Amino acid sequence: MRVADDEPDLGPWAAEPTLDVAGRLVELARARRAGSARTGPLVVAVDGRSAGGKSTAAGRLAAATPGAVVVHTDDIAWHHGFFDWDGLLVDGVLDPVSRGEAVSFRPPAWVERGREGAVEVPADSTAVFVEGVGSSRASLAPWLDATV
Questions:
Q1: Per residue in 117-144, pLDDT tens?
Q2: CA nearest 21: which of 53, 52, 62?
Q3: Count of structural domains within the chain
Q4: For 23-66, how does the pLDDT look when each residue is reduced to its tens digit (9 = 90+)?
Q5: Scanning 5, 8, 11, 24, which has its CA 20 to 30 A from the CA of 122?
Q6: What is the CATH number of the domain that holds 134?
């Protein structure tokens, strides 16, 4: 299968149960984390094109991983620059998560515009699936244990 003429062939494809995929991702993430100073939940980026099913995939992977949560980069970047939200994600979510701390982060634009709620990650989370276009960018690599 070819996504576009200027891209490599993809495949072959095989359908697998979400539980199996999530389990393998967690195993790979744990292996990559081995020897790291980070103590918090595993962090997996779910990246891809707009409308490519990232939110659906992240939600299903989190549902198949006990204690996992999803963080949407669209929430972090809401009314912020299209490309420079990675610092907000690191400072507000990934850095405290890496130390095993609970997160209740209200991005600056939420405060400025009166948006209710917060990006929440409980301290006892086992994994954080960060989904969104650019969620696996190079600047976030030190905080990621795996990427889809």
A1: 999 999 999 999 999 999 999 999 999 9
A2: 62
A3: 1
A4: 999 999 999 988 888 889 999 999 999 988 999 999 999 999 99
A5: 24
A6: 3.40.50.300
